[in-house]
């Protein structure tokens, strides 16, 4: 059971494999529900939170990537403006 849960968690790392992770998790949750329904409910809640946390982390990573690209672009534009200003001052 531990190996199956580890496999499900490994599938959570990539957003593209979340449906596969859910399919792999369902039988595991059913197995736990047969032994202890309350534990299965708790496991399901934790699973949904893990999925939400992974999606949130991926979202914020994309936001950080966009912010980094924007910062690099602004920095390059600022440098170009400085060069243009210096060139203009030399011509006068």
Number of helices: 3
- Tally the beta strands: 0
Number of domains: 1
Strand content: under 5%
Overall, the morphology is rod-shaped
Low-confidence stretches: none
Biggest β-sheet description: none
Radius of gyration, taken over Cα atoms and rounded to an integer in Å:
25 Å
Mean pLDDT: 95
CA-to-CA gap between the ends? 78 Å
Q: Helical percent range?
A: over 70%
Strand and helix order: HHH
Given helix and strand content, the structural type is: mainly alpha
Describe this structure in words.
This protein is mainly α and 92 residues long. The protein is rod-shaped. The chain has one domain (2-91). It is built from 3 helices and no strands. The longest helix is centred in the C-terminal third of the chain and has 55 residues, at 37-91.
Give structural attributes.
92 residues; mainly alpha
Question: What is the strand and helix layout of this fold?
Answer:
Elements: H1 2-12, H2 18-35, H3 37-91
Concise structural overview:
The protein has 92 residues and is mainly alpha-helical. It contains three helices and no strands. The protein has helices spanning 2-12, 18-35, 37-91.
């Amino acid at each position: 059971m531990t190996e199956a849960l580890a496999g499900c968690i490994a599938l959570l790392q990539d957003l593209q494999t979340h449906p596969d992770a859910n399919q792999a998790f369902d039988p595991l949750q059913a197995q736990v529900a047969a032994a202890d329904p309350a534990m299965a409910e708790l496991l399901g809640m934790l699973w949904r939170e893990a999925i939400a946390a992974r999606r949130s982390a991926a979202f914020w990573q994309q936001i950080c990537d966009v912010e980094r690209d924007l910062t690099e672009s602004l920095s390059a534009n600022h440098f170009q403006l400085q060069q243009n200003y210096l060139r203009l001052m030399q011509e006068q």
